[in-house]
Amino acid sequence: MTHLTLSPNLVFCPDASLKQIWLRPRQAATLGTAPMCITVLSGRVWITRSGGLDDTFIQEGEVFDASQPGLLVVQALPEGEAETLIIVSR
């Protein structure tokens, strides 16, 4: 089992549950419908929302607050061979 150590500098959206997701370079994951927060712990990701007009790019240490309705898809960007770690909170 992998244990997660969180940096005290990262800010998470208030929530009751956290889900840890590892993505390989170029791997995508459907996260479900908003609202949720996505925090990147390593790497860089592209986020798109069904019905949304803009896509979002966030990197290590940044948080995306998905408060608008719509299905969210996140993809790890190919900026190296390391896996990308994100935390999804609801």
Walkthrough of the structure:
- The structure is a single chain.
- By secondary structure, the chain is mainly β.
- The chain has a single domain (about 20-90), classed as Sandwich (Jelly Rolls).
- Helix content is about 0%, strand content about 50%.
- It has strands spanning about 20-25, 30-35, 35-40, 45-50, 55-60, 65, 70-75, 85-90.
- The strands form 2 sheets. A 4-stranded antiparallel β-sheet has the order 1-8-3-6, with no helix packed on it.
- It starts with 17 loop residues before the first strand and ends with a strand.
- Mean pLDDT is about 80; it is low at about 1-10.
Summarize the entry for a quick read:
The chain is mostly beta strands and 90 residues long.
Strand order of the largest sheet: 1-8-3-6
Please give the count of helices: 0
Tell me which CATH architecture applies here. Sandwich
Broad structural category: mainly beta
Total count of domains:
1
Biggest β-sheet description: 4 strands, antiparallel
Strand residue percentage: over 45%
What would the average pLDDT be, to the nearest integer? Answer: 79
The overall strand count is 8
Low-confidence stretches: 1-11
SSE string:
EEEEEEEE
